[in-house]
Amino acid sequence: MARFGMVVDTVRCVGCMDCVVACKTENEVPEGLCRDWIVTEATGAFPDTRLEFRSERCNHCDHPPCVYCCPTGASHVEEYGHLVQITKELCIGCKACLASCPYDARYIHPEGYADKCTFCVHRMKQGLPPACVAVCPTNCMHFGDLDDPHSEVSRLLASRRQHALQPEAGTGPRIFFLT
Amino acid sequence: MIEFTSTRANHLVDPFLHVWGWEIPVYLFLGGLVAGMMAIAGWFLFADRHRKVDSVMALLPGLGMVLLSLGMGALFLDLEHKPYVWRLYTTFELASPMSWGAWILVAVYPALLGALLLSVPAFLRQRFPALAALSDGLRARTPVVRVIAAANMVLGGLLGIYTGILLSALGARPLWNSAVLGPLFLASGLSSAAALVHMVARNRAESELLARADNRFLQAEVVLLALFLIGLLSATQVHMRAAGLVLGGPFTAVFWVGVVGIGIAVPLFIQSLAVSHRIRHTPVAPLLVLSGGLLLRIVIVYAGQVSRWGPL
Amino acid sequence: MQALSRRRFLQVSAGAASLAVAGGAATRVRSAREPGARGADRVRKVPTFCDLCFWKCGAIAYVKNDRLWKIEGNPEDPLSRGRLCPRGTGGVGAHFDTQRLTAPLMRKQVRGAEQWVVVTWDEALGHVAGKLQEIKSRYGPEALALFSHGIGGNFLKHTLKAYGTPNIAAPSYAQCRGSRDVGFMLTFGEEVGSPERTDIRNARCLTLLGSHLGENMHNTQAQEFAEAVGSGASIIVADPRLSVAASKAKYYLPIKPGTDTALLLAWMNVLVGEKLYDREYVAAHGFGFDAFAAEIAPYTPEWAYPITTIPPELIRESAREMARHRPASLVHPGRHVTWYGNDAQRSRAVALLNALLGTWGRKGGFYQPASMNVPEYPYPPYPHAERGRADNPGKRYPFAETAITTGLRDATLTGVPYPVKGWMVYATNLLQALPDEAETIRAIQKLDLVVVLDVIPSEIAGWADVVLPEAVYLERYDDLNVEVFREPFIALRQPVVAAPADQKPNWWIARELALKLGLQAYYPWKHVEEYLDTRLKGAGFSLAELKTKGLVRGKQPPVFYEEGVQPGFPTPSGKIEFYSLQLKAAGFDAVPRYQPTAEPPLGAFRLLYGRAPMHSFSRTQTNPLLGEMMSENEVWLNAAVARRLGLESGAWVRLRNQDGKRSNRVRVRPTERIRGDCVYLVHGFGHTARGLQARFKKGASDAGLITRYERDPLMGGTGMSVNFVTLEPEA
Question: Is the pTM here over 0.95, yes or no?
């Protein structure tokens, strides 16, 4: 089975938040909450300031601390794409997973269960890309099978400078940012 | 200089994690307290103190069950998806300290019940002769007593340590990244339990014994706290920054004055004088120890949520 | 006893172990269980085009179980290519906005008090018609001015032209891109237009003068910008603020505000002096080049340095970079370029720089747009307006081709050339769009009638006599979009969901008003579907077809000289006018010269404003999705200056301008992304309309601080970046 991941080209990204809005409408994310967000980092002094824009979300880690700490198995790694998903009927809302995530990618849904980016698995099963990838007007978001050396994401990772978020946390994040 | 902006403003997560409020420190405190009480109960069972008429053993298991239930009540209040709480008990997740804890808690009640059955209080023995008979029957069987004693000590130890591992397994919060947190919480639990039991014990020998034990536990706590901070300060910059929260940061005062000063140093001093009979025993030292135990949990839980990995 | 205990112990531990194994296995990988999936959802897809800004991207709206769900781009649409910008994606919020106008209103107190009586459409339109007839009989139909922005105003324009007024204006001319189009018209004989005829996607070098593509989110422009960046094109940005675009630039020129013309002249000086310009192109198509070259000879990079604060070598390097990639070296004309009052001439300088690089008509430069042939609806001719337009008496602004909004405001205030006694306003928040709010309010007080059609209770609606609530684009038909673009197409806007309250589409309002005015001859059709079908059938299509597909594309014609387009320049000389005799004859500079603009007083900062990608003007702040993305603006201040002033990140301040006007409180954003002599605000915040409760007084209004403006002598555009502010800390 594939191991899905995402590659975000920060050189093309303009930080417009289209991915945030698209995710909210596609997944009916409640007001005040978001599954993905834009981070802007500015380093240096004017006029030599450098900017990086990142569209961040759950990294669907290879070694997900949120899955390890979940006492009911609600947070689990799904066969489809080896993505990290949450079964809300098993969630008790203890929030250990929120505390365990070094990326603070999770939130508690108003109905009480933990929630986060699902990689739009419902769309992927229809052959569509995740909403954020589909909408991006700068076409800077890519997703695909990291275990397939010929996939777009693998080719991008093989040819471009990149970094992931807090790799030292040991979580094995699967979202990569091209620089 | 880095200008860092994030558009995320999720409830409970931003600007810093605040998923756990008073409920969790209260549970951790009561859990640690009961863990210590179980260790003491086990010890007293091994020492045959349950046969003594005025032993605090008559009170200990029952009080432990009540306190633990209060703690679990606090835990339940914290849950966001309460109707599904029973899902804790349809599985066992090996990697999840919370799952371990859920099952340990389940095992704790029978252990406490066993201890209770071995030392039924006098007024209950009179009321329920059948209960008295059962208690006598169990008491007569030394292996049963040993098993119950061992179970209380082991489960007490597990309960005490797991409350620390619960936090230390959450690597995303650097303040909690310490293997010392488990033993620290256990030592604190033992100390709180010794203080409480010393306060309520009517038997002079038991009371003295527990006061002396409490002093040892308090000293151990000091050592463990020092190791905890040293561990953080000799790790990465992220961990040093986390330690900074109590070394100059916003939690400095409540930690040093509340936890270390009023919660450990002052009662240790008072209680040392008391056990060497320079002054009389009063509830002051035990109450300070108990409040210090609660404050320790409060500081660790709140400050831990503020500590983070990035950005630097 | 011991046996029991040992056996029990073993049983307990065996049980625990098996649980552990089972639990562990279950943790690893579980079979799929979709959260929230329901197989029985009914999903309807309706194509339309977006109305969150004026780009009109083709969109497909999704309705799930009779509730508006989401909007995606129409993959067939050449403008959006299947991807909408954040505003378009958040378009569902326009339907769900709880601050929307819900019923026709008539004021029951003085203008501006925002006290209303809810009335029926019949009452409201009857009243408006009555007042319009009064104005017509007392002052003539020309005394009625229509301020209209966007395609939704087409039917209203039709009604009012039938009524007899020529005074129809949009702020997009004098407050936005008018000066640019005049500058290009004077050089190439044609406008830049909207969508801009820029071939960014093929540019190998893209030069932006203040254009903040990526924050300014005109979809195709932003998409093509990313394409250019992604393909390694060189980006050159001159901007006092390090915009998102500037962060991707090979050369960033942190130019002093007000001095752009000097930079343009210096760039041209380098291209001409070092013979880097497209000599063949200039020789073939240029007029007056030698005179032009002589004029710009003194404007060396060394001359420009003290003016612009850009080091001469950087000016030279960037000019050489531009030349290196010509003709695919587009110098972007910008869009909102009404900055300092001399903007038409500056835009002409941009046009001239393009001419030197040979970009007009070439790939990677400017293409020749086309449109499909769709006949107009056969109406009777409009009455001839006896008096001409009132906005430009005596052709004071000789090169203004389109109506000047602020000119109409002048006529209202002064009665010259004749009194203007009524305003109808469609979809433009004049209080935030026109400079100097106080002047707009003074003009309003002179009117016998103010009617505002809007979707939210905007500031301008607050000053109306009658407020008419329009249905948002997802709830209505509009006129056909017969787009003028590199690829011609016709698009349909059609209702997706019903309006939630008593809001009506513009075609119905315009028609009802016309009927009440006795203008039924101009509305032979009863429902807009008849109108649309008639026009479409005239072009060989049908409404049914458009309703299914949303748009139909025409044949792709050649768009570049390389593809066979014949070069042609509708100028007096028939060529690219490097030297403009018509400007000279009108008393203006034949070749642009640098004219300094007023400096900020000591301790004050020039106020600059711009766009955010999730908002359109002042009309989206209450959209629940978009308002959540950005709920207020901040004032950008250079970090070193902030330290000097003792202002920390997030501190509250008020901005006070040179005329003493104070803004609402706003948070400071100290940043290494802006010069020390200016501050920056995203436009559209600091709402003062009480009806916009959720956003009332959130952030500061740049428009409120624009009390001073400079008029462009060529075409009447209003330069608005001429206000200076100080920051007053707020407790």
Answer: no
